[in-house]
Specification:
With 135 residues, this protein is an all-alpha fold.
Length: 135
């Protein structure tokens, strides 16, 4: 009768950790993609707003309206800068998450290798027992 792999609970835990790290990595990628999409929207909106400023400027605009346009563009530029920072943070978090997943996967591979060695040793032991019984 084959003996149970003594480190099976650790192998199972490692598999759970890899699965958890993979789910976390996926969630981080979604957040990163969302942040990039928001940044693209802000950039598109800024360009659209600048075009409207150019169009209204060619037809004559009051100084107050021009100032309002410029103030709004400045606020929009601030929002874009903040969103760029968020994209950078998301990218960094994703990189950290990827490193964690790789670390957990390495542990799982190590325990899996030990499990395979145990299984081969048990098969060899059982074959030897069988051989003795046949002799």
């Amino acid at each position: 009768m084959a003996r149970k792999f003594p480190l099976q609970p650790l192998l199972d835990l490692s598999q759970n950790n890899v699965d958890s790290a993979a789910k976390n990595l996926q969630a981080l990628k979604v957040r990163w993609n969302d942040a990039e999409e928001k940044l693209k929207q802000l950039l598109t909106y800024r360009e659209s707003y600048r075009e409207r400023l150019r169009e209204s400027g060619s037809g004559g605009t009051s100084a107050m309206a021009l100032r309002d346009f410029q103030l709004f563009l400045a606020k929009l530029d601030t929002a874009i800068k903040l969103q760029q920072d968020e994209v950078t943070r998301c990218q960094s978090r994703w990189g950290d998450g990827q490193q964690e997943w790789l670390r957990q996967r390495g542990k799982l591979k190590a325990f899996d290798t030990l499990s395979q060695r145990h299984r081969r040793a048990e098969e060899k032991r059982e074959n030897q027992i069988e051989q003795k019984e046949q002799d």
